[in-house]
Design goal:
The complex is a heterotrimer of chains A (219), B (268) and C (276). Chain B has 268 residues and is of the alpha/beta class. Chain B contains nine helices and twelve strands. In chain B, the strands form three sheets. Chain B has a six-stranded mixed beta sheet, sandwiched between helices. A four-stranded antiparallel beta sheet of chain B has the order 2-1-4-5, covered by helices on one side. A two-stranded antiparallel sheet of chain B has the order 6-7. Chain C has one domain: MetI-like fold. The N and C termini of chain C lie far apart (75 Å). The chains are: A mainly alpha (219), B alpha/beta (268), C mainly alpha (276).
């Protein structure tokens, strides 16, 4: 038998400590992504055409290039700027992961806003609501309703992407598993447990989002 | 319930019926749509099913086409069991392959046409003759072109279904069903999805088939004049039961049931 | 800057090596993912529980555990089980399994999205189950699944960067090498990210091409293409005209028979009444 329960018992608290960092990165990353995503989706509408175009190119660029490379890139940038040398890798991690996912979430917001029937804009205009009020009181609430499940799915995807922080040596779940495995030569126990923790955390969340999706789909 | 036990008045009552429902029951979850249903359709007979929505008429067609599972009872086609048979006093499901052999004798035309959008008109028509009946492509194509001419669409053989009007699509669907040379043709509200001005063409094609072939037809329709013209018998359904049946003249002019009267006055 | 360019020029053969590794991982990984997706996705639409349930479990398992966990499992744990795998195989395997599981869900949902009437028409024509799937359902589902598959393939490309963690010298690894030789973080990473971006763009273009072909086979154009929008506008106009005409006509003959062979009784009946 290659499975050693002693190693497993020893690994578990270490992995859970790593998991705390995973959760921090996910939660803070999600907050950054939801806020920045909304800004990207909304602000873009009012900007002159050429700035709009540049922002969209940048969004496409961040979205279509690897998160791992972006992490390493920003890590080195911070390391090269004297005042920023001491910024913890975890902070760099959740900033980059948050920005990366904001490019996805801005698309969700945009689709949500586009899904609001034109009649709603027309009705608001007919009531002579000012544009800002139309947007915040009429369009946005309806758009968010359509967007929330999609944002949830991206949060789960982000959670599963946090192991990429391995690239900048943040000791999250998988990194701690790798370190424990290397020290004790107990990879089987470490990575299996890491996988189980991921599964146990992400699967119920996905189911929850699915149910939310169905609930929100019926007005 | 004394009304279900009736024999068809026309045309031939002797011999093996083309379709026989025996003690048929159909439920969707807790809702029973058909209960203890018994009737037969003679070969060559054209029967129209009428009744309010939810009375189970479309379900009958779908059961014959094996699109729905039978909850209880038996359906026979040409005297042979379709999906279930009784063996040693037990109700046993027929092998899927056998059921599929049986369904080659049955054709169906749907309300929504259901042409395959990934195939041209001609490919739609020859698909089953070639791959189910094993005809050669050339033979099937020749027959398909004859059928297209019959439904007035010979110039559309290479068109994609999505480029055709609803009435044209439905005529292709009729040709596709006929290409299998079915003994039984099921017509499920075939004109309900069409713009009013396109209904006439489709009904014209069906009239022609009714007059020139002896295909057994079971149809659900809201076109009462058409039903009166082509069918030998009309069956009025209500609550999963045959409320009354008879020749079209009798049912339309002289219905014996209050419910039939009120139904007819609501649709005519 | 010129120094950087000279270094880059000298570095080109090495950089190409990295690009090659990344492309091989992407292409072979994608092929593996598509095969896995088709097998699992089809199994998940099966009416047999003994096919559906295991497929669902496998999909949820590989979606739920992270890509990196799967990669490290193949790389670190398999040798302990006595199976020594080449790092390249580990990379391709992990990418194919992880993204294959995600794609399987796309395949499944596309197949179930195909109009029910298509299944029914295929049954009515007595087509065999395999023929039904191959000739009727799948070609239509395929057109539906391409956009989502395109997104997943680009994610797979981005995912290939993790193989640099298991000693493979892919594009990501070469970028960090280029950074060391130029000592210019911005330069090295900009070059690297642009290369990734271009590959992603090529994948997108290829998938767009596939989608155009698939929708053309259905006699349609891509949803919301420019020609589509133009046609929709024209149809809307024609519709408005027709409605005008029919209301005026209806007003003119006031419900009388219009000679369509449906007879006076049936005039207003068509299209009314319920279905089951």
């Amino acid at each position: 038998m290659i499975w050693n329960w002693e190693f497993a018992a020893e690994a578990l608290p270490i992995l859970l400590r790593g998991f705390v960092n995973t959760l921090i990165a996910t939660v803070v990353g999600t907050i950054i992504a939801t806020v920045l995503g909304l800004i990207l989706a909304v602000a873009i509408r009012g900007l002159p055409r050429w700035i709009n175009w540049i922002v969209r190119l940048l969004v496409a660029f961040v979205r279509n290039t690897p998160l791992v490379v972006q992490l390493i890139f920003v890590y080195y940038i911070f390391a090269g700027i004297p005042g920023l040398v001491d910024v913890p890798a975890l902070v760099i991690g959740f900033i980059v992961i948050g920005i990366h996912y904001s490019t996805y979430m801005s698309e969700s917001y945009r689709a949500g806003i586009d899904s609001v029937p034109p009649g709603q804009f027309e009705a608001a205009t007919a009531l002579s609501l000012p544009p800002v009020r139309t947007f915040t009181a009429v369009v946005l609430p309806q758009a968010l309703r359509a967007t929330i499940p999609s944002l949830g799915n991206y949060a789960v995807a982000m959670f599963k992407d946090t192991p990429f922080l391995f690239a900048i040596s943040v000791v999250e779940l998988v990194t701690s598993a790798q370190q424990f495995g290397a020290a004790k030569f107990a990879y089987t126990e470490a990575f299996t447990l890491a996988g189980i923790i991921f599964l146990v955390a992400s699967y119920p969340t996905s189911l929850l989002i699915q149910r939310l999706d169905r609930r929100l789909a019926t007005y | 319930m004394p009304l279900t036990e009736k024999t068809p008045a026309t045309p031939a009552t002797a011999g093996t019926p083309a379709i026989e429902f025996k003690d048929v029951e159909k439920s969707f979850g807790p809702t029973t749509v058909l209960k203890d249903l018994n009737f037969t359709v003679a070969p060559g007979e054209r029967v129209t099913l009428i009744g309010p929505s939810g009375s189970g008429k479309t379900t009958i067609l779908r059961l014959v086409m094996t699109l729905e599972d039978l909850t209880d009872g038996y359906i026979f086609v040409d005297g042979e069991p379709l999906t279930f048979e009784e063996r040693d006093g037990k109700r046993v499901e027929m092998p899927k392959k056998r059921t599929r052999e049986m369904t080659t004798r049955i054709g169906m035309v749907f309300q929504q046409f259901n042409l395959f959008p990934n195939m041209t008109v001609l490919e739609n028509i020859i698909e089953a003759p070639v791959h189910v009946l094993g005809k050669s492509k050339a033979e099937a194509s020749t027959e398909a072109k004859e059928l297209l001419e019959r439904v007035g669409l010979s110039e559309k053989a290479d068109a994609h279904p999505t480029r055709l009007s609803g009435g044209q699509q439905q005529r292709v669907a009729i040709a596709r069903a006929l290409a299998m040379s079915p003994e039984i043709l099921l017509l499920d509200e075939v004109t309900s999805a069409l713009d009013p001005e396109l209904v006439g063409d489709v009904l014209g094609v069906l009239r022609d088939i009714a007059e020139t072939t002896d295909i057994t037809m079971l149809l659900v329709t809201h076109e009462m004049q058409f039903a009166r013209d082509v069918s030998h018998r009309v069956m009025m359904f209500d609550g999963g039961q045959v409320l009354e049946e008879g020749p079209p003249d009798q049912i339309f002019n002289n219905p014996s049931h209050e419910r039939t009267k009120s139904f007819l006055s609501s649709v005519l | 800057m010129t120094e950087n360019l000279t270094t880059l020029l000298n570095f080109l053969p090495q950089l190409w090596e990295g690009v090659r590794v990344t492309i091989i991982l992407t292409v072979v990984g994608s092929l593996g993912a598509v095969i896995i997706a088709l097998a699992l996705g089809l199994a998940m639409t099966s009416t047999h529980a003994w096919l559906r349930v295991p497929a669902r479990i496998i999909v949820e398992f590989f979606r739920g555990t992270s890509l990196l966990v799967q990669l490290f499992w193949l790389f670190y744990v398999f040798p302990l089980l006595g199976v020594e795998l080449d790092p390249m195989i580990c990379g391709i395997g992990a990418l194919a399994l992880n993204y294959g599981a995600y794609s399987a869900e796309v395949v499944r949902s596309s197949i179930t999205t195909v109009d029910k009437g298509q299944w029914e028409a295929a049954i009515a024509l007595s087509l065999s189950p395999s023929r039904r799937m191959i000739r009727v359902i799948f070609p239509q589902a395929w057109a539906l699944m391409i956009p989502s598959l395109a997104t997943l393939l680009i994610q797979l490309l981005k995912g290939t960067a993790v193989v640099s963690f298991i000693t493979l010298q892919d594009l990501t690894d070469k970028i960090t090498q280029l950074r060391q030789s130029t000592n210019d973080t911005y330069f090295a990473f900009t070059v690297g990210l642009i290369i990734y971006f271009v590959i992603a763009w090529l994948i997108q273009e290829f998938m767009n091409f596939l989608e155009r072909r698939a929708t053309a086979a259905l006699g349609r154009r891509r949803p919301n293409s420019r020609t589509d929008r133009r046609e929709a506008r024209r149809l809307a106009r024609a519709d408005a005209v027709r409605k005008d005409r029919s209301t005026s006509r209806a007003a003119a003959d006031d419900g009388g028979g219009d000679g369509l062979g449906t007879g006076p009784e049936s005039g207003p009946a068509s299209g009314q009444g319920g279905r089951l």
